[in-house]
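REQUEST ID: PR-0412
SUBMITTED BY: lab tech R.K.
PRIORITY: routine
TASK: structure prediction, single protein chain
INPUT:
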Amino acid sequence: MRFKISTAPFIHQGNSVTKTMHQVIYALIPGIAMYVYFFGFAVIITIILACITALICEFFILWIRRKPILPFLTDCSALVTALLLAVAIPPFLPWWMTVIGISFGIIFAKHLYGGLGYNPFNPAVVGYVVLLISFPVEMTQWPALSTLGYNYAGILDSFSIIFYGHPTGGLPLDSFTGATVLDTMKTELGQFHTVNEIKAKPMFGFLGATGWEWINLTFLLGGCWLMYKRVITWHIPIAVLTGLFVIASLFFIIDSDIYPSPIFHIFSGAAIVGAFFIATDPVTAATSNQGRLIFGVGIGLLIYITRTWGGYPDGMAFAILLMNMSVPVIDYYTKPQVFGH
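STATUS: complete
OUTPUT:
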């Protein structure tokens, strides 16, 4: 059996951190556009605020660490962190909380460990968890669709809510916000309602939440484009969704009155965004293909466990952080054999 062995010089494929980050941003654009369509100008304001905060924090930390500022500031890694956190938090979140979440993610979760390439945890997820644990009430104030009987927040109302804590015109904040479907499902199941009774509410759509199912479909489209461009491999996202689908199917078969369908779990909350855009972070995820499958399945199982029996309605962030902790062990036991051994 003969093996072809090539020698230097080798041809560079043209990949770089900047190019990869640009492609991730391009893949996020369809989902963000749909997000803005359903939930209004507050999304744009929050994204701009998050991006500005991320760049300022990146600049000052690089300056303090005496690192070259321009190459790291223009690689767009900070912008990707900002975008991922901005689409995960409620658009009406007070401005100073968004600043805290982004600052913590950039300063502590990224640069405290040495910067890009050395962080064991995804900075956007760390920032999100800090906000969720510290400000649980504010992190549940999501905009409600005007088609469900709520008022539509224009640009002035959105700006006033984010920076002053109340809308203009004397309307209460509750007239613009509502509970998410995951929160509603979890709460009413605890009140002994059946899944079919809960899903009869107009906030539930065909696949997941009204509006959110379309947002998740566009994020799915962007994730598939990343796989097509080979920015990510299929192993982690497919493993995450498969793990979630399998365990949700099992309990749905056991009792469909108290356990929602697997399709509902996939198209509700952050399952698709997390599977394609966050769990696939090459720095914090497992490295071998076998390890990526274990890593992804573990995230899918932990999402379902947290949603069903935990204290939080979604669970994606906690699942990713827990599996980030497991990466060294996964890599140790799934590292490929050295050629010839």
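NOTES: The chain has a mean pLDDT of 89.
REVIEWED BY: pending
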